[in-house]
Amino acid sequence: MPIVKYPRATEPLWHEWDRKAQKCGLRHRVYAVNGDQYTGEWLDNLKHGKGTQLWKRSRAIYSGDWKFGKRDGYGSYSILDPVTKEYKKVYTGWWKNDQKCGYGTTLYARGERYEGEWSGGLRSGWGRMYYRDGSIYEGQWLQDQPDGQGMLRLPNENRYEGVWKDGKKHGHGKFFYLDKGQLFEGIWAAGIPKCGILIDFGRDEAPAPTQYPIPKV
């Protein structure tokens, strides 16, 4: 009996149609059900490559790199100023898995600014923070707080150099009272000096030195 060869079963047409309908590579503009809008590149129906997302509710905009549907790579996040009605960038830098990660710059309300490293959307690593009152902190961060070695310089040029923990002076440190011409060096705990020594330091050049010099031991 002769062997009859049947043609191999082909892929169902609906599989082919679905594959062709997927957004891949090319730039597309897509509106979500809630009104959010994305314009950019796609891969397997996911935002992937360069693209811009506009959130309808907050009117915020992200423009930059995407990876499998999430912000990943370099990009900027902007918000609409309620007074000027113009967009202003509040973060420019690196992202990973939809969160700030790597080096980036953030502009806060009231003119404060942070330049440095991020992890999981929080300030972590090395960074510099410019505060509204003119103070500047430069050093290590952990989970959005100064943690590790760092220096805080006050508007009057007085400064603390030493160890921090959970956003407070904690451990060995030096506080330079340049306005008085004095230096305190000692141990801190939760922001409070516990023990140490106070000596004159540049007292002759200080703008407001103490009335009497500290005697040398």
Largest sheet: 15 strands, antiparallel
Provide the gyration radius in Å.
Answer: 28 Å
Low-confidence segments, given as residue ranges, are 4-9, 13-21
The helix/strand class is mainly beta
Mean pLDDT: 89
Subcellular location: Cytoplasmic vesicle, Secretory vesicle, Acrosome
Protein name: MORN repeat-containing protein 3
Pfam families: MORN (PF02493)
Organism: Tricholaema leucomelas
Can you give me a brief rundown of this structure?
By secondary structure, this protein is mostly beta strands.
Describe the structure.
One of its GO terms (cellular component) is acrosomal vesicle. This is MORN repeat-containing protein 3. It is found in: Cytoplasmic vesicle, Secretory vesicle, Acrosome. Strand 7 and strand 8 form a beta hairpin. A 15-stranded antiparallel sheet has the order 1-2-3-4-5-6-7-8-9-10-11-12-13-14-15, with no helix packed on it. 4% of the residues lie in helices and 57% in strands. By secondary structure, the chain is mainly β.
Layout: helices, strands, pairs:
Layout: H1 13-21, E1 27-31, E2 37-43, E3 46-54, E4 61-67, E5 70-80, E6 87-96, E7 99-107, E8 113-119, E9 122-130, E10 136-142, E11 145-153, E12 159-165, E13 168-177, E14 182-189, E15 192-200
Antiparallel strand pairs: 1-2, 2-3, 3-4, 4-5, 5-6, 6-7, 7-8, 8-9, 9-10, 10-11, 11-12, 12-13, 13-14, 14-15
